[in-house]
Specification:
This protein is of the alpha/beta class. It has helices at about 30-40, 55-65, 70, 85-105, 105-115, 145-155, 180-190, 205-210, 230-245, 250-260, 265-280, 285-295, 300-310, 310-325, 335-340, 345-355, 370-380; strands at about 5, 10, 45-50, 75-80, 125, 130-135, 160-165, 195-200, 220-225, 360-365, 365-370. A hairpin with a 2-residue loop joins strand 10 (about 360-365) and strand 11 (about 365-370).
């Protein structure tokens, strides 16, 4: 069955969306978080949004941008800087993101952007619909700091207030330029027409950036942590999605999957995406389990490469954390003895290295494998 979502132009074949944002009909809950973000934007209060990777930060931000009070009154820009390596990359991504967003709105807005950002050599053209299209390459940025200053000048002069969401914001800590945090903080502090959302998945780095008195962004934003969607909310959502398409899935099956993946949004969606296709009329625990196993085995080559690319000490600690699920007191004698590790200092060093590689994350004093499917593979295959 194919259905058309309300106010949606695209056909939906599977309601369990795993990439991007489609519409409110296929977005589960997050009512309180959406309300808080909207209130922060309307109050011109910057937000730090922290959660494990793939918990739904991007979807929440796009859902917030889709709210009528934001969509009608603000210019919104979203960029994921995870792949950026330096300030030049950041300016390139931010500038082109603004260009692409303005293209769909108003020719005058694009003309204004090109006029204000003088230090970049733009390529100007028109698409088939007659819309003005401005773009530039990395080589067209001659002075990244000057271009960044001009982009902020545009944000300040824009006819509507702006909202800029920057995902994986902790990446700027890895830039070779040592003044990026201070530079951005200065521009943001003096830009009264823009509100920022700083999203990040490496909790220890993000918290240090915004909660340490020695850092430029100290006390500059409201802190907001994204927890798993409440079980009853997600179970109701998933059962309803099956039902809309004329299929049946018992609540207890979704309940069990939620417990297995600890409510981690993307991983549940990914399993149910497959389970939905595997279900003719009635889903079953067997179908859901097969879908989970397929998701894991499809990535087995990647997981093996990740695992055997580590040192022996790192592999031993990673296996121990995966076996625990949530590993606490990792430097205790009991933990070290249980998993045949060498010493507290070596465990501490290995965990730090695994966190730097984004393989392990920490929350509330415990460590866990960041990728749920990788953790499942480690626990069951080794």
């Amino acid at each position: 069955m194919i259905i058309f979502a309300e106010n949606l132009n695209a056909m939906i074949y599977n309601p369990f969306i795993t990439s991007g944002y489609v519409s409110p009909e296929y977005f589960c809950d997050r009512e309180n978080e959406t309300q808080q973000l909207v209130q922060n934007i309307q109050g011109h209060s910057h937000t730090v949004l922290i959660s494990p990777r793939r918990m739904g930060k991007t979807g929440l931000i796009e859902h917030c941008f889709n709210q009528e009070v934001i969509k009608n009154d603000y210019h919104t820009f979203f960029l994921d800087i995870y792949s950026t390596m330096n300030l030049n990359d950041f300016v390139f991504l931010l500038g082109n993101r603004i260009c692409r967003s303005l293209k769909t709105k108003d020719k005058q807005l694009m003309e204004m952007f090109v006029k204000v950002v003088k230090s970049i050599q733009f390529t100007i053209g028109f698409d088939e619909a007659g819309m003005m299209n401005g773009s530039f390459g990395l080589g067209d940025i001659k002075d990244s700091q000057k271009s960044l200053e001009e982009i902020f000048q545009y944000l300040e002069e824009a006819k509507r207030p702006c909202v800029v969401a920057i995902d994986e914001f902790q990446q700027i800590e890895k830039y070779p330029e040592k003044n990026v945090e201070a530079l951005l903080r200065t521009y943001i502090q003096h830009c009264n027409n823009a509100t920022f959302i700083f999203a990040g998945s490496q909790r220890h780095i993000i918290q240090n950036m915004f909660a340490s008195a020695s850092k430029p962004f100290y006390n500059s934003s409201n802190m907001m942590s994204l927890a798993p969607i409440a079980k009853e909310k997600y179970v109701e959502f998933a059962v309803r999605m099956f039902a809309i398409f004329g299929k049946v899935c018992a609540p207890e099956y979704i309940d069990n999957l939620y417990d297995t993946l600890e409510g981690h949004t993307w991983y549940m969606q990914a399993v149910l995406y497959l389970a939905f296709y595997m279900t003719d009329k009635k889903c079953s625990p067997t179908i859901i389990n097969e879908a989970l196993i397929k998701r894991v085995t499809d990535n087995e080559d990647v997981f093996e490469s990740m695992y055997y690319g580590l040192s022996e000490r790192q592999r031993s600690v990673l296996k121990a954390i995966a076996a625990e699920g949530k590993a606490k007191q990792t430097q205790s004698v009991a933990f070290i003895k249980k998993y045949g590790l060498t010493s507290a200092s070596s465990v501490q060093s290995a965990i730090r290295q695994l966190m730097d590689k984004d393989l392990v994350t920490t929350e509330k004093g415990s460590y866990r494998v960041d990728d749920r499917f990788f953790g499942f593979w480690l626990k069951n295959q080794l």
